[in-house]
Design goal:
heterodimer; A: about 280 residues; mainly alpha; 2 strands; globular; B: about 120 residues; 4 helices; about 0% strand
């Protein structure tokens, strides 16, 4: 393939990935790594480096739109970014010591679990709770604009969520994904945040987590400008589009379609990894 | 209520930083991508085997020097680096904001995050 042809393919694939990332909260990396390795035959190390940069682009592009609308909580984001960035550095450290076939298999398994979690029932913010003392001391309580006016929410079980965030960060550094599903899981199901707050805060944190590991990947030479440049531009176009759709519609049908696509990719990554090991 | 107002204002500024970072980095990427495609567009692309990038793409000072010498791929990589720096700038902005408010707890929180981020980019890897 010529450089021009590859660039065009990367751009269009990344546009689709950015759209998926913004709509499902799964992050662009989840689709990009299989797309690059299985679809275009790119070495998985280059693919992970490229995906990390794409994850930052998706996150920053979409977060710029969300933050403006007052959904995400900056304090919650920062507090849990301690956990995710430390986890990310750990994951990036482990990545150079893990065989690529094992990375492919782990990737597939994490992808499958992410999909399963992304279909868990999302509880609304309607249940009224009294503030948790630890969360209050950490200044994590907040409110967000809803159709019924300003809705207050009170996070709980902070330590458990923190531990899950370390795991999310490690997965991000090892696999080049945003770990959006794990982040949403720990905010949605553990902290008990409203769905829109957890997805947007997650999107907002993903970029910081990925920046920690992207630094390590860049200095190790896993990020190639020829791959990263068209992917960044495509992912930005896709996530801008996705953010626009998300604030307007309930995206259940879209999620169903995308989940099916991600599922197929997950299985293929596992098969790919097992074949590589054999 | 003061805390809530701060969160909102912080939200707006953070949004502005992210938009600016994304705009500048994608502009720099386009600036490098166009001459790269004109020059190398018809060449064969090979990414099947991992060889690792040359040093000019791996360390910040060397990359800046390479991009300043108008090498298209160097300019593209500089755009990528600016994109990586965008979330870092965003965290740094939060530090300023919490400092203005004398929120000791979150000044500390933000410093730890910044430390982890610089370790990634400038640490031993």
């Amino acid at each position: 393939m010529t450089v021009l042809g590859l660039t065009a393919l990367l751009f269009s694939g990344a546009t689709a990935a950015g759209l998926v990332g913004a709509l499902t909260g799964l992050g662009g990396g989840v689709v990009l790594v299989p797309l690059l390795t299985l679809g275009l035959g790119v070495d998985i190390k280059y693919a992970i480096g490229t995906a990390l940069v794409a994850v930052i682009a998706t996150s920053s592009g979409a977060a710029a739109a969300y933050v403006r609308e007052g959904f995400s909580n900056v304090r919650i984001g920062l507090f849990f970014e301690i956990a995710t960035t430390l986890g990310a550095l750990l994951g990036a450290f482990l990545a150079s010591r893990t065989p690529t076939s094992a990375i492919a298999v782990i990737f597939g398994v994490v992808l499958l679990t992410s999909v399963a979690f992304s279909w868990k029932e999302h509880r609304g913010a309607t249940e009224s709770r009294s503030p948790d003392p630890l969360a209050t001391r950490l200044g994590l309580n907040g409110s967000y604009p809803s159709l019924a006016g300003e809705q207050a929410y009170f996070p709980r079980r902070v330590p458990l969520a923190w531990l899950l965030m370390v795991v999310a960060g490690a997965a991000s550094g090892l696999l080049g994904i945003g770990s959006g599903a794990l982040k949403v899981l720990s905010m949605d199901n553990v902290l008990g945040l409203p769905y829109k707050v957890s997805t947007t805060t997650s999107n907002f944190m993903i970029g910081v987590t990925a920046a920690a590991s992207a630094g390590v990947y860049l200095t190790r030479g896993y990020i190639d400008p020829g791959l990263a440049a068209p992917v960044v531009l495509g992912v930005l176009a896709g996530s801008a589009l996705g953010a626009r759709i998300l604030t307007r519609t309930h995206s259940n049908v879209l999620r169903l379609v995308f989940t099916a696509v991600v599922l197929v990719m997950a299985v293929q990554m596992i098969v790919h990894g097992l074949r590589g090991a054999a | 209520m003061r805390a809530k107002r701060t969160v909102r204002r912080l939200g707006r500024e953070v949004g502005a930083i992210l938009r600016l970072g994304v705009l500048v980095s994608s502009a720099v990427i386009v600036l490098g991508l166009v001459p790269y495609l004109v020059r190398d567009g018809a060449r064969h692309a090979d990414y099947h085997l991992f060889r690792g990038e040359p040093a000019v793409f791996r360390t910040v000072p060397e990359l800046i020097a390479y991009a300043a010498a108008a090498h298209p791929r160097g300019i593209m990589q500089l755009g990528v680096l600016l994109l990586i720096a965008t979330p870092v700038a965003r965290v740094a902005l939060c530090l300023v904001e919490f400092g203005r408010e004398r929120d000791r707890l979150y000044i500390g929180v933000t410093l730890v995050v910044l430390l982890a981020l610089s370790w990634g980019l400038f640490g031993p890897g």
